[in-house]
Design goal:
The protein is α/β, with parallel strands linked by helices and 666 residues long. It has helices spanning 2-31, 37-57, 62-90, 102-105, 109-114, 125-135, 150-167, 184-190, 194-201, 203-212, 222-239, 275-283, 298-308, 319-323, 332-338, 356-364, 395-406, 432-445, 452-477, 499-505, 557-565, 585-588, 632-654; strands spanning 255-261, 285-286, 290-291, 342-347, 368-370, 412-417, 484-490, 532-536, 552-553, 583-584, 598-599, 602-603, 609-610, 614-617, 622-625. It has 2 domains: 2-212, no CATH class; 248-581, Alkaline Phosphatase, subunit A (3-Layer(aba) Sandwich). It is globular. 41% of the residues are buried.
């Protein structure tokens, strides 16, 4: 009996210490590890999971226990390892709802292997240790139950520890809160922020909650949620009505070409390599505090934010696929269509990552969508086929083939999604190799050394510059340039490059054209600061003193465009803000003040936020205040407001809130 207990205790300690070790390594690499009460939570949950593993293993004889033990340790190692690698190139954590998109994930297999780093070897140390302990007979698998009450005791211990862990999760609300507050228990139950639950309770608990939330019954009915959303939007309209501003209608009746440029980043704009983009940046309207927060599906989610001004669902793989049948009355094409514009969307890649050819005309309401197949560039893959080597297409060719579709229309709104700037940046990049000589010559002319990967990235930017120049030349030739505005913005930062490399080139005085720093070195949130610029030949919007300083992000593009073009938008129904008409956050916080606090706040996927006066970093759970008029309590209330906003946005999607406005239902 003593041997049986000793063997079981050794196995128990090995699994417990392994899980705690995994959590420490994962937090150090991913989330910012610190010894705190949150880590005590993680240990308690790990203890309960270890008891559950033992409860299961001890039903079997030693040979089966050995096989199952190896399986468990491999499975757990892979879970932590895979989430680490996945986040490094997808900027999010996968969940059980992602399983349906596994075939598309295989297309990133090359990026998966490129993301491997030496530090990932630490996830396999427990497996190596397990093998050595077994080989040198320090572990025995003779742990089968010897009494009928033994499994009940182990199961009871597991339940006691698990429910004790739940009991110490705080459900205390803030006493002086300005609105709805969110407790740690809300986080555990609703999983509204995957990164935060990973930080507080660990990866196994996140996985456990993610799995059981698939079967969690709704507390309220759909009808009750719709009524709550009615109340929410009515309150927004009454308490925060939209305010016109000095830029309202400034581009009224102009055509618009909206270009979402793949991986366009601040340091890509150069007076010699990209002279057209630099001219727009330097002489027209450039917004130096525009951010494009990165969500799970990067470009696709940025596109969703831009076109709908609604947040993507962070708990699923692809918002478009899940909610493509929803009705969205306030999309960019539908707003322009109401004003008599013809609306087109163009993209120089296939439907592989998601079905733009379906969602753009049907879900968003474009008159027509032309992808690479329709433009004669590249055929769509057969359904279910997996692409391992993506052949990136020319942005210049995109312009040449797209412009004839709209150039003769009286009024047009054109959406373009480019692809030439997509990583990987090397001599295998089809577009970059066409322009690498220009970058090499630039390097020699200025007697500088540019990192090889960075050179290929800059080469892709030349292609975009040529495309924009061709567009402007064709508009001018058709006598349409004076009547057309062009908006160009990055879909996300160039995450195909290492962060240290980005900080090295952004704002580096040794890098000739980088005279100003856009991204604060070491600031993870500032990485998302990317270009946003407006060209309009009739109205030069640029400030006399330099660039525009308004803070706004991808979700704010739709209401900002609606204001500039005088589109018929009911602003309470979108979750972004016009960059020129920010909210009064003192009023939102319920603060009686003679001075309103009018500002925009950038909201990130992980619930971090920032503006000129403060910054909240979710990973570190830390507040940085630049303006002494604010305090941490103000920011805590603001954090709760943004959580409420995200949950309301999520419910708009889940319950298809706007379906009642669908004219096809009448």
């Amino acid at each position: 009996m003593e041997t049986y207990r000793t063997n079981a205790l050794k196995m128990f300690l090995f699994f417990l210490l392994s899980i705690v070790y995994f959590e420490v390594v994962f937090k150090i690499r991913m989330i910012n590890f610190e010894l705190s009460f949150d880590f005590f939570h993680t240990i308690l949950f790990s203890l309960s999971y270890t008891f559950m593993f033992m409860f299961f293993l001890m039903f079997f004889q030693h040979k089966t226990v050995k096989r199952l033990s190896y399986f468990l340790i491999v499975l757990i190692s892979f879970l932590y390892f895979n989430q680490d690698v996945y986040r490094s190139f997808m900027n999010g954590f996968y969940s059980f709802s992602s399983v349906g998109d596994a075939d598309r994930a295989l297309s990133f297999i090359g990026d998966y292997f490129l993301s491997l780093r030496f530090g990932h070897i630490f996830y396999f140390i427990p497996l190596i240790g397990f093998y050595l302990l077994v080989r040198y007979k320090h572990l025995s698998f003779n742990i089968e139950y010897i009494s009928i009450k033994a499994p009940l005791i182990v199961l009871l211990l597991s339940f006691i520890v698990f429910f004790s862990s739940l009991q110490i999760i705080s459900d205390e609300e803030k006493v002086d809160a300005a609105g709805p507050t969110y407790t740690d228990l809300d986080l555990y139950q609703k999983l509204y922020d995957p990164q935060f639950i990973l930080k507080k309770y660990g990866l196994l608990t996140y996985t456990q909650r993610d799995f059981f939330n698939l079967f969690r019954p709704a507390v309220l009915t759909k009808e009750e949620h719709l009524l709550l959303l009615d109340d929410y939007f009515e309150r927004i309209e009454e308490e925060h009505p939209y305010q016109r501003n000095r830029f309202s209608d400034i581009l009224e009746n102009k055509n618009l070409v909206l270009i979402m440029a793949e991986s366009l980043d601040t340091y890509a704009i150069n007076p010699e390599l990209t002279p057209t983009l630099f001219d727009i940046m330097d002489n027209y309207a450039y917004f130096e505090n525009y951010y494009s927060p990165l969500y799970n599906r990067s470009t696709a989610d940025s596109e969703f934010l831009t076109q709908t001004s609604i947040y993507p669902d962070k708990n699923i793989t692809l918002t478009w696929n899940e909610y493509g049948d929803n009705y969205f009355p306030y999309t960019l094409p539908r707003l322009f269509e109401k004003e008599g514009y013809s609306t087109y969307s163009f993209h120089n890649y296939t439907d592989y990552f998601y079905r733009r050819s379906v969602y753009h005309p049907q879900t968003l309401g474009y008159d027509a969508y032309y992808g690479s197949e329709e433009l004669g560039l590249l055929d769509n893959p057969e359904d279910g086929s997996i692409i391992f080597n993506h052949v990136w297409q020319s942005d210049l060719e995109l312009m040449k083939r797209s412009i004839p579709y709209f150039i003769n229309d009286d009024q047009f709104f054109v959406n373009m999604v480019t692809v030439s700037g997509h990583f990987n940046y090397s001599d295998t990049h089809e577009i970059a190799v066409q322009h690498i000589d220009a970058v090499n010559e630039y390097e020699l002319a200025h007697d500088i050394t540019i990192d090889e990967e960075m050179k290929y990235y800059l080469a892709t930017s030349i292609e975009l510059d040529l495309a924009v120049k061709y567009l402007m030349d064709e508009l001018e030739a058709a006598d349409k340039l004076d009547d057309t505005a062009i908006i160009i913005y990055g879909d996300h930062y160039a995450y195909g490059l290492d962060e240290d490399k980005i900080w090295e080139y952004d704002g580096n005085p040794d890098y000739p054209y980088m005279e100003r720093e856009f991204k604060e070195e070491g600031n993870e949130l500032d990485l998302h600061n990317v270009p946003f610029m407006i060209y309009s030949n009739k109205y030069r919007l640029n400030n006399i003193d330099g660039y525009y300083t308004e803070y706004f992000s991808t979700i704010d593009i739709l209401p900002t465009i609606a204001n500039l073009f005088d589109l018929d938008l009911e602003y309470q129904y979108v979750f972004g803000q016009d960059a020129f008409s920010p909210l009064d956050y003192n009023k939102i916080m319920g603060i009686s003040s003679t001075e309103p606090y009018l500002t925009n706040v950038i909201r990130f996927a992980d619930m971090s936020f920032l503006n000129q006066d403060f910054m909240y970093t979710s990973i570190a759970d830390s507040y940085t205040i630049y303006n002494e008029e604010f305090n941490s309590n103000y920011l805590l209330n603001l954090n709760d407001y943004f959580i409420t906003e995200y949950i309301k946005s999520l419910n708009v999607l889940k319950y298809d809130y706007f379906q009642s406005m669908n004219p096809e239902n009448n």
